[in-house]
Amino acid sequence: MTARSVALPVAISCGEPAGIGPEIAARAWHALKDEVPVLYLGDPDHLPKDVPVTRIDAPEDAPQYATSALPVLAYRFEGPLTHGQPNPDHARSVIEMISTAVTLLQRGAVGALCTAPIHKKALQDGAGFAFPGHTEFLADLAGAKHVVMMLASDQLRVVPATIHMPLSQVPAALTPDSLEQTIRITHAGLIRDFGIVVPRIAVAGLNPHAGEGGKMGHEDIEIIAPVLDKLRGEGMDLRGPLSADTMFHAGARTGYDAAICMYHDQALIPIKTLDFDRGVNVTLGLPFVRTSPDHGTALDIAGKGMANPTSMIEAVRLAARMGAARA
Question: Rounded to whole angstroms, how far apart are CA atoms 116 and 292?
Fold first, then answer.
């Protein structure tokens, strides 16, 4: 099934207007206009001036215009735009674009969501944004109790069981319940969103050499292994706990469909080393498809025509494929 078989468009929320989001969204549309219908949510005046735009009122109409112009569900932002300098007056509108995208998803007007990067401090300063980031806000809007962050590319899919926390806090945060939920959501996502009938999941140990039988830590024996045994008993194909230093060479990667790692860098260093520009951030566990480029707002290069759109292009393409898998 090709991405173009998805009748509904992929919505792109504008993200931080002073960053590279509008620019890379426009370039993603241009690269994919004959492959994936998209719909941009934001202020059309923030888009590059050389991009043809069609303002539409009905999201469902986007596919009929998308091959010749970027369809935009237009929203007027208050205050001027200065590249590289977030305007606090834009914060509420940025948040509203995300909320609007979720509403469109929930009513079936769009098939998937790709979010351009937000600037969390700008949202906090301008609108009292109470969430650590996009993912937590989307989970709240969707009523999802537990979501999982996956970084995906053609070469590797990784899931960190714990995310943005000091390494010293990881052992306490790594509980049997949280690890089980992460594995279950990853397993279900590989089936539903990636079309893998029987997912093979590799699970890293926490300690060097997966604890080496308890000589270098007991978490692998006492926390990770029992969870894997329980889920294997339900029929899941799980390998581990494995020594992380031997999981990511070319031969090892042929043996699994996704790797679950115990902390942030254990997961992100391999994928960013293998495929830095094409990594896509995927949120599993939501009742809709959400992807995002695996980078930030890049305020320092915004508006200069220097932004690399590759991750955004891959994020839109993957959103369409995931939407097709769900459909």
Answer: 6
